[in-house]
Amino acid sequence: MATFHHSNPTDRDIRRVLQKLIIILSLGIICVSLFYFFTGCCESDLTENSVSDRPASDDRNGTFYKDVVTVQDEDGYPGTGEGSTLTPGLETDNTGKDWKATRRLPQALIIGVKKGGTRALLEFLRLHPDIRALGSEPHFFDRHYARGLHWYRSMMPKALDGQVVMEKTPRYFVTVETPGRVHSMSRDVKLIVVVRDPVTRAISDYTQIISKTPHIPAFETLAFKNRTNGEIDSLWSPLWIGLYAQHLERWLAWFPRAQIHLVSGEGLISDPAGELGKVQDFLGLQRIVTDKHFYFNKTKGFPCLKKPEGSSKPHCLGKTKGRTHAPIDPEVIWRLREFYRPHNQRFYQMAGQDFGWQ
């Protein structure tokens, strides 16, 4: 008589449960592997965007702030990298448009002048959500032109459609080759020049020079070819930069006057919101940066930005801003004012504006 062996029903149930657990575990491992694979692919993008493309928090006044990356610029102010305290992090928005943010050539340039207030203007403009500005000075058109436009574009911050990309390098205004090179990049680029009383600007320039090289000759010595007969050395850089008409004429040979906006350096101190309003109009942007963003620092003698939310301190432009000027012989100042008078009058005519320099 045949004998049949039947499996224990309990054993069958255990095998089924084990099979199901193995299948579930395998699926779990596959899912986890896929998760790490995709996040790993994106890691390089996340690293690149961790400073420049990370959404910034905004305070109750609509002002944007991000991590500070300090550099030194030609104006002698502590500049900021792409992730400046004042750089709006706008590559990501509620509609998920971050994937459209790209690096492109600038549509606007702050081309001058050194010690005129270009750093202040740049930092104030970077409060605007539709402006994406490079914090450091790339010096592309005067020093690094051989690197090519591809390199220049790679220096720019990423921006969305509708945002204005810009950079500032004050040396552009006085460099002979620069207007033609900028025109080759774009005929439509908008140009901004911050001008300041050329005598005050020259003294400020010299003050910065002696802070780095304290043993150079006195301002009064360097300003003259021959002090006995009062002949001014107009080729000395601090004085040559102040020949605004000469430099502007070179730019007007390449660009129409309507594409060049002149900012008063004095106005940037006395009425920053007013000057910023005109710059925003020139760039075709809504006037978002207004007087609510500023307060006047009586100690330093220039405007500062109101403190960001979560910070106990307001934002001013660093120790070099508002530095006490070197004392200059009043007679030398008078001679320089006489020297600049005809140059200033010619500049006023070209600019269509009287800046009121004495």
Automatic annotation (TrEMBL):
GO terms for molecular function: [heparan sulfate]-glucosamine 3-sulfotransferase activity. Pfam families: Sulfotransfer_1. It is a single-pass type II membrane protein. Its EC number is 2.8.2.-. Keywords: Disulfide bond, Glycoprotein, Golgi apparatus, Membrane, Signal-anchor, Transferase, Transmembrane, Transmembrane helix. It is found in: Endomembrane system; Golgi apparatus membrane. GO terms for cellular component: Golgi membrane. Residues 106-343 form the Sulfotransferase domain. This is Sulfotransferase. The gene is hs3st3l. Belongs to the sulfotransferase 1 family. The chain crosses the membrane at residues 21-39. Coiled coil: none annotated. 3'-phosphoadenylyl sulfate binds at residues 115-119, 196, 204, 321-325. Residues 73-97 are annotated as: Disordered. The active site is at 115 (for sulfotransferase activity). Disulfide bonds join 304-316. It is an enzyme of class 2 (transferase). Its main location: membrane.
